[in-house]
Amino acid sequence: MPRIMKRSTLGMVFSLMGDAIAAAAAVRAHRQPDAQTLRRLGIDPEQFPKISSY
User: Fold this and answer.
1) Secondary structure (H, E, C), the chain
2) Please, what is the end-to-end C-alpha distance for the chain in angstroms?
3) Are residues 46 and 32 in contact, defined by beta-carbon separation less than 8 angstroms?
4) Nearest CA to 34 among 48, 50, 54, 15?
5) Given this model, what pLDDT does residue 47 score?
6) CB under 8 Å to 47, separation ≥6 — which residues?
7) Could you tell me which of 20, 12, 50, 25 has the C-alpha nearest to residue 37?
8) How far apart are CA 51 and CA 54, in angstroms?
9) Is the pLDDT assigned to residue 8 strictly greater than 80?
10) Is 19:37 a contact under the CB 8 Å cutoff?
11) Prediction pTM value
12) How many other C-beta atoms lie within 10 A of the C-beta of residue 31?
């Protein structure tokens, strides 16, 4: 794999992890995460409030 591809893949992984951490922090603070963050995680922002917790 070329060096540039490795860097872009690694950057994507860190970006995804950052989005997951941001969404988890918002939920922990009893707020809805940013719509853009949810979309990058593959979650529909319109459906997010309908997700129930256990």
Assistant:
1) CCHHHHHHHHHHHHHHHHHHHHHHHHHHCCCCCCHHHHHHCCCCCCCHHHCCCC
2) 43
3) no
4) 48
5) 94
6) none
7) 20
8) 10
9) yes
10) yes
11) 0.78
12) 9
pLDDT in tens, 26-54: 999 999 999 999 999 999 999 999 987 65
Token pair belonging to 31 = 């707020």
Residue 26's pLDDT is 96
Residue where the block lists tokens 């860190």 = 14
User: How many Cβ atoms from other residues are within 10 Å of residue 33's Cβ?
Assistant: 20
Residue 5 pLDDT > 70: no
Q: Name the token pair of 5.
A: 């591809």
Q: Which residue has the tokens 């129930």?
A: 52
